[in-house]
Design goal:
Strand content: 15-25%
Structural class: alpha/beta
CATH superfamily: Metal-dependent hydrolases
Shape: globular
Number of strands: 18
Number of helices: 15
CATH class: Alpha Beta
Largest sheet: 8 strands, mixed
CATH topology: TIM Barrel
């Protein structure tokens, strides 16, 4: 910073969107040493080393995409580069990634004490945005590592994939030990889920000063229901595409899993529970019922932008296969109804880059049961939420809460999620009146397709700042990767 100036940068003439505020104020944002130093009106240009005219654009807090899967289908060192570029393109400045041992992801088993330092070493210098990891304990040894992961590595969020007990990532599987790469004496079942919860409860007791940041996320689907219904759908042959996949993994499978997980959380006093990617009316109703039944549990409810935009009649077909499935239009509208009522805590992308040659079967590209699960979308998270939310009266400050403030607070990132003095200068400038049509070829992701292809979105991210440094501007990534690992709580 030059002598005589107070700030590195002042963003002039922006409309500041903050969580918890009922109005959007026009003003300036001053940045010093990577943090927001002041938000006000007519800040003197002589106080800053650099001035950027925001041209009356909306300024949102950098998005905290709470649910991504960087490294699931491609090597982490490759995926981190490309998919964090897509994140920056969409205004995401904090990428929180679910990760586990076993097939896909790390493609090896063993203790996280050995595996996770390798992950951190591979990640360093590869992300264009700040990043963190949620980890899934798959065996008893990994449950025992929870305190080590918290204390040594700042991993304070963990995950259970409930359906893995009798199902694979893409369909039925009878080789779960090979898939998860766990010992023959281990079982990934309800008892294991209980012991994960007890391990997290013990960690909260051990680290009471971190209790607000330590949480458990659950992918709630029931393997037994899915196995049975998949056989029925395939045997009858009446449904195809996304409708078939939704019927094969029916909404009540979600609801039942939520009920089981919630009771176990109550039984084990595992109080911070995140119910991930709720996709249907039945799932949301189960989640709300469990919150009433167990008021001592601090439930948080998540939906994805895919489940808010796409329904099972989407022309994307197998390209939109994801777990849990894309549902009916009635389910989509119920998700919106619940979100507008303030009963959804955050919206994420569930970004999992799966390139076309891997996504669909070469000989039968339309066969839904042969397709891989998951797709990218972090680059469309904010534009799509603004587009669809505007139609339904979703306020701008609520968008900031759903995409930044709420996930930042839940996952131990107190310096993220707001445009207030002292916060990291993670800032997204948005032109709310600039429309664009989604084209996969214009994405920074290497996926090569998108199930959102052809959608017209009515808001455009124009610039993204990470800790005061411009990383995306006017359709281009700026500079080399500068993302930092977020050892939590930060």
């Amino acid at each position: 910073m030059p002598v005589g100036t107070k700030y590195d940068l002042i963003l002039k003439n922006v409309r500041v969107v903050r969580p918890g505020q009922s109005t959007v104020e026009r003003g300036d944002i001053a940045i010093a040493a990577g943090r927001i130093a002041q938000v006000g009106h007519d800040l003197p240009v002589s106080d800053a080393a650099a001035i950027v005219d925001g041209r009356d654009r909306l300024a949102f807090p950098g998005l905290v995409d709470a649910h991504m899967h960087t490294g699931i289908y491609s090597p982490l060192e490759k995926d981190a580069l490309s998919e964090s570029r897509a994140a920056a393109q969409g205004g995401v400045t904090s990428s929180l990634n679910y990760l586990r041992s076993g097939q896909y992801y790390l493609n090896k088993g063993g203790p996280y004490a050995e595996l996770f330092p390798e992950v951190l070493q591979t990640s360093e210098g590869r992300f264009h945005v700040d990043y963190a990891y949620h980890l899934a304990p798959l065996d008893s040894r990994q449950i025992g590592e929870i305190p080590l992961l918290i204390e040594r590595h700042g991993v304070t969020s963990f995950k259970i994939f409930m359906f893995y007990g009798g199902y694979g990532l893409h369909g039925a599987s009878s080789h779960q030990h090979d898939f998860l790469m766990i010992g023959e004496d281990e079982r990934y079942d309800l008892a294991h889920f209980e012991f994960v919860m007890r391990g997290i409860k013990d960690a909260v007791t051990q680290y009471p000063h971190l209790s607000d940041a330590i949480s458990l996320s659950l992918h709630c689907e029931t393997a037994e229901i899915m196995n049975a219904y998949t056989k029925i759908v395939q045997r009858e042959g009446k449904l195809t595409g996304l409708r078939a996949y939704s019927a094969a993994r029916p909404p009540h499978s979600e609801g039942l899993a939520i009920a089981i997980a919630s009771y176990l959380a109550h039984e084990t006093e595992c109080v911070n529970i995140n119910l991930l990617h709720l996709s249907s009316r039945k799932a949301v109703e189960a989640a709300l019922t469990m919150a009433d039944a167990f008021p001592t549990i601090d439930f948080r409810r998540e939906v994805t932008i895919g489940h808010l935009v796409l329904d099972y009649d989407s022309p994307a077909g197998a390209l939109a296969k994801v777990n849990p499935p894309i549902r009916s239009r009635a389910d989509v509208e119920y998700l919106w109804e619940t979100l507008l009522a303030g009963k959804i805590d955050w919206v994420c992308s569930d970004h999992a880059c799966c390139q076309h040659e891997m996504k669909v079967d070469e000989g039968k590209p339309d066969e839904i049961f042969l397709a891989k699960s998951g797709f990218g979308g972090t680059e469309y998270l904010l534009p799509a939420l603004l587009t669809e939310g505007r139609k339904r009266g979703l306020s701008l400050h609520r968008v900031a809460e759903l995409t930044s403030w709420n996930p930042a607070r839940r996952f131990g990132l107190p310096s993220k999620g707001d445009l207030a003095p002292g916060c990291d200068a993670d800032i997204v400038l948005v032109d709310p009146d600039r429309s664009f049509v989604v084209r996969a070829e214009e994405s920074e992701s290497t996926q090569g397709y998108t199930p959102f292809e052809g959608l017209e979105l009515t808001a455009t991210v124009t610039s993204t700042y990470l800790r005061g440094r411009l990383i995306y501007d006017d359709g281009k990534i700026v500079g080399s990767p500068s993302g930092k690992y977020l050892k939590r709580p930060c």
